[in-house]
Amino acid sequence: MLEGKKVIIFDMDGTLIDSVGVWNDVDRALIARLGGEEAGDVQAQRDEALRRFSKSASPYVDYCAFLGEKYNSLLTPEEIHTLRYEIAQEFLKNVIDYKPDADVFLHKLKQRGFTLVIATTTRRGNMDIYRTQNVNMLAKAKIDELFTLVYTREDAREIKPNPEIYLRVMSELGAAPEECLVFEDSLIGIEAAKNAGIQSVAVYDAYSDREREQINALADFQVQTYAQLMEREGL
After folding, report:
1. Quick one: DSSP state of residue 92?
2. Cα 48 from chain centroid?
């Protein structure tokens, strides 16, 4: 898996950190504040909306506009967007954590001389919290000490499955696709890697199970846990 690779690129939500379920909790709380009685499958609803708005300059604002319309809110999309991140602050600082052994894997890769990159649709404001305020992540693996590049939602015009963010990583580092490896948990992330010509590793996350068959068919490698991966790669 790692043979011949120089640049290892990681997604964040669901790949390096256990956060997808947290964002579901945030959106349930948000929908309740908007007056919605039953949120249903908030993740499927969010994923579908973000895929639809992937070419937008502000897909998450568009997502909030969708929520406002669906739940008959009088708030503007921008006000809903602000409210969403007010609700999220406690989760971002004190609840979200690395997936088991992800921090250990990152340290081992760094020690072996790999260039590590984050390429995520997470907003820069959230990433800054992970970098400087998240108590769990700061205690285990500091992002600024491990990663050469950190690209967030604001660093690409189009979000995944568009390959723009991965193409930018390769351009910035002067790396060829065959020298890179992408770790992703979601179908749109695996699609983005494939569209960039980069091999991908599907990291298991329960919140992507509804797309598991498609993910496994498209990804070059699949791993259940980082502990299993390190054992398999002799790290």
Report:
1. H
2. 16
Give the separation between CA 187 and CA 151, rounded to whole angstroms.
Answer: 19
Q: Are 182 and 9 in contact (CB under 8 A)?
A: yes
Q: How far apart are CA 65 and CA 188, in angstroms?
A: 22
Q: List, as one string, the DSSP characters of 25-68.
A: HHHHHHHHHTT-S---SHHHHHHHHHHHTTTSS-HHHHHHHHHH
**Rg of the chain on CA atoms, in Å:** 17
133, amino acid identity: Q
How open is the CA angle 6-209-229, to the nearest 5 degrees?
35
127-133 long-range Cβ contacts below 8 angstroms, 24+ apart: 127/12, 127/152, 129/89, 129/92, 129/93, 130/12, 130/17, 130/92, 130/96, 133/92, 133/93
Q: pTM score, two decimals?
A: 0.81
Nearest to 109 by CA among 230, 21, 196: 230
Give me the tens of pLDDT residue by residue for the chain, a chain 235 residues long.
Answer: 999 999 999 999 999 999 878 888 999 999 999 988 766 788 889 989 988 998 888 899 999 999 999 999 999 999 999 999 899 898 899 999 999 999 999 999 999 999 999 999 988 999 999 999 999 999 999 999 999 999 999 999 888 999 999 999 999 999 999 999 999 999 999 999 999 999 999 999 998 998 999 999 999 999 999 999 999 999 9
CB 109 within 8 A of CB 117: no
